[in-house]
Amino acid sequence: MALxxxxxxxxxxxxxVINNFTYQFNQNGLYLFVATNGSGKTSIFRSILGLIHxxxxxxxxxxxxxxxxxxxxxxxxxxxxxxxxxxxMDYLKLIxxxxxxxxxxxxxxxxxxxxxxxxxxxxxxxxxxxxxxxIALYLISDADYLIMDEINNGLDExxxxxxxxxxxxxxxxxCIIISSHYKDEVYPYADKILTIKDHxxxxxxx
Length: 206
Ligand SMILES: Nc1ncnc2c1ncn2[C@@H]1O[C@H](COP(=O)(O)OP(=O)(O)OP(=O)(O)O)[C@@H](O)[C@H]1O
Hints:
The chain has 206 residues and is an alpha/beta fold. It has helices spanning 41-49, 88-98, 105-111, 127-141, 157-170, 183-186, and strands at 2-12, 15-26, 29-34, 59-61, 64-65, 73-74, 145-149, 175-179, 192-197, 200-203.
């Protein structure tokens, strides 16, 4: 099992972002993208999921096109994607059903101690509460490939530690692809580090 990206190039009108990125993400391990703001991390994630146009010679999971394998991957880019009229519970039920997951909703709620707010509408959530819900969606999806953009933003130190411990555990049997501005905290848990320099993605195995 592997997620393969072949010759991925991303550009916008008058802007070149990524040049010819080829890589194989294996079925387990934690892959960390660290690069300066605006270098193209989010654009790579969106391209892998087919959310933006890119040039490539294939983005596949187990040699099958990504479009056929969408339930093997979970990507929820930001809490800005939430409909604030819905509750956390609405989202947890939706993702559990859509991803046909066996993970228990109550276990995930308990993990983040979300009991007091999970049934309220998201408009009442603080930044950290929204971020915990976002992470809870990854946990409930139980997808084989978890692609996480700045997943530890908005979390306090203890919550970031708790998340990293969980990701470390999950990366023993799942592929986790993460970008983070808290790179010093994530480094020790990363199996591979990727960085972007002059539009090229390079291995940065410290
Ligand atoms: N839809 C778009 N149209 C035009 N330019 C875009 C679009 N999306 C991103 N860009 C540009 O592409 C470049 C890469 O953006 P991207 O969001 O991928 O960077 P990033 O590495 O994720 O940044 P950050 O660390 O700040 O989140 C930036 O110069 C950005 O302005």
